Amino acid sequence: MTLHLMSIMTFHPFEWIFVGNIVLIALLLCCSALASSSETALFSLSPTQLDKIRRHPTPTNKAIMEHLSDQDKLLATILILNNLVNIFIITLCNNLIDSLVEFHSQGWEFAIKTVAVTFLLLLFGEIIPKVYASYNPTGVVRIVALPLKFSARLLKPFVFVLVRYSDAIQNRGIVQPENISMEELEDALEITENPSQTEKQMLNGIVQFASTEVEDIMHPRMEIKALDEEVNFDEVKRMIIESGYSRIPVYKDSIDHIVGMLYVKDMIRHIGRDSDFDWRKYLRPAYYTPEHKKINELLNEFQTQKVHIAIVVDEYGSTLGLISLEDILEEIVGEINDESDAPEEVLYTQIDENTFLFEGKANIGILEEVLELEEGTFDDHRGEAETVAGLMLEAKKEFLKKGDTLTLHSTKLTVQKVTGHYAEEIKVQRITPTTK
C-alpha cells in the first residue's frame, strides 16, 4: 500500500511556514460559512421573528431589515462574496498541497486536489453552515447582518453591475402581465351578471382581503372578556359560563399585561374542583400581533403557529384588542353563527320618530343607516373613530361628561351616561323643521 502510494506521490517535510497558510484557509472557510449561512438564515425568518426585529430598532436589527428590503442586492452581495472567498481558498489549498506533496501523475494530482478541496468547501463552507442556519436563523442573522452591510458597501460596484445585468436578462423577451388594480376588480364584480348576494359578498371579501388590517376587524379593548390571575376557581367557572368563549385571556394587574390564555377545554375535567384549585398552571402562551398587520399575513401565522386567537398590541405594547381566526374567515364568507353564539346585540333603541338612544360602542355606520344618512356623512369629523362615542370625542377634542351636546349634520347628540371617561349611552336626535 505504501509502495503504491509512493508511486503516485512523494511527501515533502512539513515546515512551520505552512502554518500561516493553514490558518488563513481556516479563516477564509469561516467567511465562506458565514456567507452561505446568511442566505439561509435571512430567508428563513418567520413573520413573528421579523415583527420582533422591527420592534427593536438596534443597529443590527436595522441592518437585517435593510438587507431584506432589497433582496436582489442581498443575493448579489452574498454570491460575489462567497465566490471571491472560495477562489482564495482554492488557490491557497492548491499552493499548500503543492508545497507538501509532489505528484508523479497529472491525472492523480487533478483528482486528489479536486476531491480534497471540494470536500472541504462543501462540508465546512456550505452544508454544515446552512443546516445550522435553518435551525437557528435569528442567531445567525445577528452575527452576519453588520459584516454583510460592510461587504455590500465594499463590493457596491460589482453588486450594481450584477443586479443590472441579471435584471436585463430576466426582462428580455418577457411580456409583463398587465396589472389589475383592486378598483378594477371591484368594478368587474359590479357588472358580473346575476351574482347571488352571498357570492358577491364572498368575492368582495376576497378582493379586499389583502388590504384589510388587523385593527379594522379586531374586537376593541373594551369588549375583551378577560380574567385577573388573582381570582379563584369559582370566579373562573362563572366567567366561562357567562362569556361562552372557548379561550379567555388572563392578565396580571391590568389588561395591558396579558400573561396567557385559558382554554376552556383544559378546565372541563376539573369543573368539580374547589375554589382554591390552581387553574393558573394550565395557562397557555398568548400570541401577539401588531395593529397594522394585514389579515392575510396573520391568517398564515395562525396556520403555521397553530393558534386561533391573538392579542392586538400597539407600538408601546399596550393591549388594543383581540382578533380570532373566525374574525378573519368572516371577512370572506360573512357572519359565522353557531349554536353557542348569542343573538346579535342591539346597540340602539328608538324613543320616537326622530329620537334614538345609542350605546357608545355602536358603529358610526349603524348611526348613519338608522338616521337614513348618506354613507360617510360624518367622515369630516370622525378622524380615526369607529364608534358614536369616538365620534363625539373626536369632534369635541376633550373627555365627555354627562349632558354634553353636539350638533353635526342636522343631528344632535347628547351624552346620557358616562363611566369614567367613556360615554356609554348617547341620545341622538334627527333635527327636522318640527324638531328643536
How many strands in all? Answer: 14
> Strands of the biggest beta sheet: in what spatial order?
10-11-14-13-12
Number of helices: 18
What is the 3D shape? elongated
Quote the beta fraction.
Answer: 15-25%
Q: Helix content range of the residues, please?
A: 40-55%
Structural class: alpha+beta
The major pleated sheet works out as: 5 strands, antiparallel
Task: Report the end-to-end length measured between terminal Cα atoms.
Answer: 113 Å
The domain count comes to 3
Uncertain stretches of 5 or more adjacent residues: none
Arithmetic mean pLDDT = 80
The rounded Rg comes to: 33 Å
Explained architecture:
The protein has 436 residues and is α+β, with helices and mostly antiparallel strands. It folds into 3 domains: 170 residues, no CATH class; 120 residues, CBS-domain, CATH 3.10.580; 83 residues, Uridine Diphospho-n-acetylenolpyruvylglucosamine Reductase, domain 3, CATH 3.30.465. The chain contains 18 helices and 14 strands. The strands form 4 sheets. A 5-stranded antiparallel β-sheet has the order 10-11-14-13-12, covered by helices on one side. A 4-stranded mixed β-sheet has the order 3-9-8-7. It has a 3-stranded mixed β-sheet with strand order 4-5-6. A hairpin with a 2-residue loop joins strand 12 and strand 13. Helix 2 packs across helix 7. The chain starts with a helix and ends in a 6-residue tail after the last strand. The model has no long low-confidence stretch (mean pLDDT 80).
Question: Key features?
Answer:
5-stranded antiparallel beta sheet, 18 helices, alpha+beta, CBS-domain, Uridine Diphospho-n-acetylenolpyruvylglucosamine Reductase, domain 3, 436 residues
